[in-house]
Amino acid sequence: MSESLKDKHESGGLKALKDALKTTSLILKVSMVFLVFAFLFSGMTNLEQYEKAVVLRFGAEDDAVREKAGFQFALPYPVDQVIVVPAGRTQSLVSSTFMYQKNNRNTVSPFLKPGVDGYLLTSDGNVLHCESTMKYQVQDVSNFLFSCNADQRDEILKGLLDNAVFQAVAKLTLEEALNKKALIADSKLILQKSLDALETGVRVELLDLRLSVPRQVEADRLEVTKAKQDAARVKSEADVYVRKTSDLTESDVVKVKSNAVIWKTRMIGRAEADYKTFEKLLGEYRKDPKQVKSMLLRDAMAEISGNLEEVFVFTNNKERELRIMMPRKPLKKAEKTNGK
């Protein structure tokens, strides 16, 4: 009886062991299948709208640049390698090669330290500091990836940027460089030519330069700038005064000429009228001088008496006096008339 029970226990344990091995085997098989599928699809990459990809097969470029957004299939590494480039996104690179070194104490050294403080020299021998910012896009993905080592790409682009700014500043005076317009245009042109010559596949979108004179002479530079602004302001005011005075003078000249023409016309008309009157009276005078004299005296007295307040007429008879009362005119009115 005990032996039969023992056989039953042994057969039950063996069965449990076999079941456990089957379960483990099934789990291993499923895991292996899952790992195989995971390995096969490990080369897939999801591209965003602004990204492009290049597939390397055994280290060499296998196919054209993949530009379509979405999942891109590739064989797993080490067969294929997918390199993604943000070609549709503007990238930025900043260079402070030509800037002075900043310290935590904000103190200004009396001189520049060679090898520590960066600077540029203009064509007129002045010192200039510059911080450059380049914004660019990848135009050719293959050239961008294979023209230079990926670990050194930023350093190469930074070196080309510094070289372009250095060449452009050397052609300009300090005032021309601080204007920045010509400097940025020339620097961008030189930089793009250098990038194209090395086939980097990069297109410069924007170049910004932050310029400053050495801190040691910044206060003097501000004084010079203020003096120039004051000079420009005074010159502008003087130009306005000259234009205003010139306009007033021209207006006065036109007015004087116009009055002169009117006066001339009036005098000529009066002279012609007097001449005609004189000729007429001359004929009458030759006929009867006494009558003409009497008429002229009467007219003169009539003209004069109109402005007199009182008139006294004396005869040769000393005992007789003839007094003629004339209407008195308002003095204020006469004063206003004389004032005009």
Average per-residue pLDDT, rounded, comes to 76
Report the uncertain regions.
331-340
**Number of helical segments with 4 or more residues:** 8
Query: Roughly how many Å apart are the termini?
Result: 161 Å
Question: What is the structural class?
Answer: alpha+beta
One letter per element, helices H and strands E, the order comes to HEEEEEEEEHHHHEHHEEH
The shape, in one word, is elongated
Tell me the helix content.
40-55%
The tally of domains stands at 3
Radius of gyration in whole Å, from Cα?
55 Å
Number of E-state strands = 11
- Largest sheet data: 4 strands, antiparallel
- What share of the residues does DSSP label as strand, in percent? 15-25%
Kindly describe this structure.
It is a single chain. The protein is built from eight helices and eleven strands. By secondary structure, it is of the alpha+beta class. The chain has three domains: 40 residues; 111 residues, Tetrahydropterin Synthase, Chain A (2-Layer Sandwich), CATH 3.30.479.30; 115 residues, no CATH class. A hairpin with a 2-residue loop joins strand 2 and strand 3. Helix 3 packs across helix 5 and helix 6 packs across helix 7. The protein starts with a helix and ends with a helix.
